[in-house]
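not sure who needs this but someone in the group chat was asking about Polyketide cyclase/dehydrase from Micromonospora lupini str. Lupac 08 so here u go. i didnt clean anything up, its just raw.
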Amino acid sequence: MHVLGSRRRSQPAPAHVVWRSLRDPYEAGARPWLELRDDEVPPRVVAGYAPVLLVWSSLWPHRPLDRIRFDVTHGSPGGDCTLRWTLTTEADLPSESTLGYLRHRLNYLINDRLRLSYGQ
């Protein structure tokens, strides 16, 4: 397995809220944050352990062996948490331009769109 990228950053919501947002990004009543592009598909949850670990299938149909792992660490009681996404693959390594795009896209979705959905 190859690690293609990883980023750790705080999220303003508690760990259980962030985990639930990742488990079901389209949950009724939740603020929308997972806005997919035409070349992306909704992820499937392939593994999880609430509220500290969740693994998604690939967002990109042309990269079906990619996985996105989310590690959630509790912050202050009732407060924030830390979220790390890690992109892995069982496939061959992508080109540098593709790799840059994948990393940028995940960082945007998780550390911008998800974060803003909590009002930050």
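also The mean pLDDT is 95. if thats useful
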